[in-house]
Amino acid sequence: MEKFINITLKVWRQNGPKDKGRFEIYKLNNITTDSSFLEMMDILNEQLIGEGKEPVAFDHDCREGICGMCSLYINGHPHGPDDDVTTCQLHMRKFKDGETITIEPWRSAAFPVIKDLIVNRSAFDQIIASGGYVSVSTGGVPDANAIPIPKADADEAMDAASCIGCGACVAACKNGSAMLFVSAKVSQLALLPQGRVEGARRAKAMVAKMDELGFGNCTNTGACEVECPKGISLSNIARLNREFLCAKLQD
Amino acid sequence: MSNLFCSSVGKKLVMSISGLFLIMFLFVHLLLNSFLLIPDGGEMYNAGAHFMATNPMIKVMEPVLAIGFIVHIVYALILSHQNAKARGNVAYASGNKTQGVSWMSKNMLILGVTVLAFLVLHIAHFWVKMKVTGHDLLAHTTIKVGGVETEVENAYALVNYTFSQLWVVIVYAIAAIGLAYHLMHGFWSAFQTIGFSNNVWRVRLNIIGAIVAWVVGLGFAIIAVAQHLFFQA
Ligand code: HEM
Ligand code: SF4
Ligand code: FES
Fold it and tell me: Which residues of chain B neighbour A251 with C-beta distances below 8 Å?
């Protein structure tokens, strides 16, 4: 049922990468619980513009949970307190009347703040560019049964492929590790015959890039899996370790 | 292969293998310690200790064990340092409210340091006295080994005396429980690191890990407490 709530926002503001940054407090009244979190942020920005202040910068694009562009660390969770949703799919009904909501950018050395709540996630693009693809053209859509793939493998590859590259795993990790992301990208290809061919090279290249960019070492705490909006499983990390170690032993 | 150990996964492999090796050592050590529960005035224990002290296999393993510990600790420090750096120095103002992440998994270094503090004490109490400086209590005693009268060091007397001190027993028990918690996460983590895990094995490894952790942890603790309570002359 639709309700209206009054909330206090504690928002990280930072003018640029070099700025020290600080929290600002904003009050918002009569926010419908039917609005999404980002709609609420839009209302905040309209209010700020009306007051002649600078709006809060935050990342977003599709607003339907598929592009991986939205971020925001909300009340102690990447993508906020709801399970298995991105910030754009989080709704204000998850918050209580009178609540103070703290909004921070992803914090990790490999994701430096650009402005306010926007961090630079191009490190993920660099990891993908280092090997997260199939380098031969596979042509048009082949006949569905031309290459038999076990159902279990197809399912696991599909689950891994649901990673949207948002970076919540890194934001949640006490080690700033990108292993969940990298393992999803390695797994989605390693499980299928088209991607299998370059499996060893891909695992080595992507891990090397991940290390070079200053992401941490995974200690298997599992925080990433809990906070991942797409439910990417830790079993992918075991697969990445397997792929990587086998590839190195073959050298 | 060459740059394997420069990579994050390679360094974790070192952690994993050294950790699993240390677990194997703990089982051998626990087996020997369990002889302390036999009420025979320490004969069986002294025989076991004598076997350990004279067996060439053990002579080889002793430095390997020391290297195992050193490697595990050095890599623990390197990895922890790198991870702190990767995390960056700005903490979340709203804290970390992620549910369902075990406390152990986030505090492996603290738990490891508990084990290390104990290890230093342990070496000072037993290893140094048995191997380097010697101790009055170790005066030779004669036992039957396989029916043959053999003169051996009275290791039991030293152990028995050490555990007569309440503070030693308390420190020992705390460290043993710290070790159990270290392994509650460490056991499954080691298998995950070498790639031997999936959604099915993760559950199994966690159960086996919990059993291993508490058999080892409580095993060491109970033996120390029993020595203090029931085996004092
Ligand atoms: C008998 C003693 C010990 C045993 C049996 C043991 C066992 C283990 C095992 C099995 C792991 C999991 C490895 C992995 O995640 O792949 C581990 C991790 C760890 N150990 Fe130990 N350990 C011992 C002593 C120590 C000591 C003395 C320290 C530190 C001073 C230490 C610090 C750590 C740390 C920080 C980790 C986590 C490292 C990571 O996951 O990156 N451990 N240990
Ligand atoms: S693994 Fe999950 S949390 Fe990490 S980038 Fe992919 S979708 Fe986001
Ligand atoms: S804006 Fe596209 S996933 Fe949230």
Answer: 1-2
Indicate which residue's Cα is closest to atom 1 of ligand 2.
A181
Q: What is the pLDDT along chain A (251 residues), one digit of tens a residue?
A: 789 999 999 999 999 999 999 999 999 999 999 999 999 999 999 999 999 999 999 999 999 999 999 999 999 999 999 999 999 999 999 999 999 999 999 999 999 999 999 999 999 999 999 999 999 887 788 888 888 899 999 999 999 999 999 999 999 999 999 999 999 999 999 999 989 999 999 999 999 999 999 999 999 999 999 999 999 999 999 999 999 999 999 98
Residues of B in contact with A243 (CB under 8 A): 195
Single-letter code of the amino acid located at B95? G
Are residue A59 and residue A11 in the same domain, yes or no? yes
Give yes or no for a contact between A234 and A225, defined as CB atoms under 8 angstroms apart.
yes
- Residues spanned by the domain of A240: 122-249
- Spatial CA neighbour of B5 closest among A207, A202, A222: A207
Measured in Å, residue B212 CA sits from the centre of ligand 1 at: 14
ipTM: 0.93
Q: State whether residue A176 is helix, strand or coil.
A: coil
Mutate to test the interface with A, among B15, B72, B87 (most CBs of A within 10 A): B87
Residues facing B109 on adjacent strands:
none
Pair (A54, A160) in one structural domain: no
Q: Do the strands A4-13 and A100-104 form a parallel or antiparallel pair, or are they unpaired?
A: parallel
Q: What residue type is B96 in one-letter code?
A: N
- Distance from Cα B17 to the centre of ligand 1, integer Å: 10
- Residues A90 and A67 placed together within one structural domain of the fold: yes
State the count of interchain CB pairs (< 8 A) between A and B: 150
Residue numbers of the domain that contains B65: 2-230
Both A63 and A110 in a single domain? yes
Same domain, A171 and A135: yes
Q: For chain B, how many structural domains are there in total? A: 1
Chain position carrying tokens 């513009």:
A49
Phi, psi angle pair for A115, to nearest 5°: -165, 140
Domain count, chain A: 2
Domain final residue, candidates A57, A81, A114: A114
For residue B98, give the CATH number of its domain.
1.20.1300.10
Task: Output b/e per residue, B152-175; b: 16+ Cβ within 10 A.
Answer: bbbbbbbbbbbbeeeebbebbbeb
Q: Where are the beta strands (DSSP E) in chain A?
A: 4-13, 22-32, 73-74, 77-78, 100-104, 113-115, 118-119
Give residues with Cβ within 8 angstroms of B118, minimum separation 6: B171, B172, B174, B175, B176, B178, B179
**Is B12 in CB contact (< 8 Å) with chain A?**
yes
The whole-angstrom distance between B199's CA and the closest CA on chain A is 6
